Amino acid sequence: MTTDFSGKHVVVTGGTGALGRAVVDALLAAGAVCHVPHRGAVPADLRASERLRLTGGVELADEAHVMRYYGELPELWASIHAAGGFAAALATETPLAALRAQLDQNLVSAFLCSREAVRRIGGKGGRVVNVASRAAVEPAGGSLAYTIAKSGVVALTRALADEVKGTGLLVNAVVPSIIDTPTNRKAMSPSPEVLARWSQPADIAAAILWLASPANRVTTGALVPV
Which of 19, 35, 79, 145 could form a disulfide with 99 if both were Cys (CB 3.0 to 4.6 A apart)? Predict the structure, then answer.
């Protein structure tokens, strides 16, 4: 099944991170014009392309920032939300500030970008894809704030999919387990056996690409494990 994005404009939040960069690479290879909002430095080895539009200074948990960013975009086909953050701590060691930080990084950013994408697409079909987490559907201890925030992303995805049904806009989420990134390798020092079970960014990107593509005509409200 083809995933042709020729001439289609797609937002990728978190597009300078490990997963986001894999998504951007896949979209560029499929012909998309990628819009990547970011607030920090851009990696020097980020793939150069005339179809890659980087916009700095965008705080994704700031309503005014997100509204302005989406309001200045050209006609939009899809919005993919790979921005997020992780923090591990026991419940008794999690201050309120840590919960609020996880909510901002994972849920608030996804909510604001999803909302503005719906407004920008304006009932002309389109796709929204969120990145949830296995922790949200199979909760375990040790990262309560993160689990709560990603559970909100799951609820957001399902509720929004139901709200916009019949408009042609399809809303889905991928649900990865631990992703094989340099940061995770450094933090966890996995054995080769454990590392072999981690999700690869390119594989997750392939699932996201299909959910965001015109080839996906009926799947909405789904949580796709990857």
Answer: 145
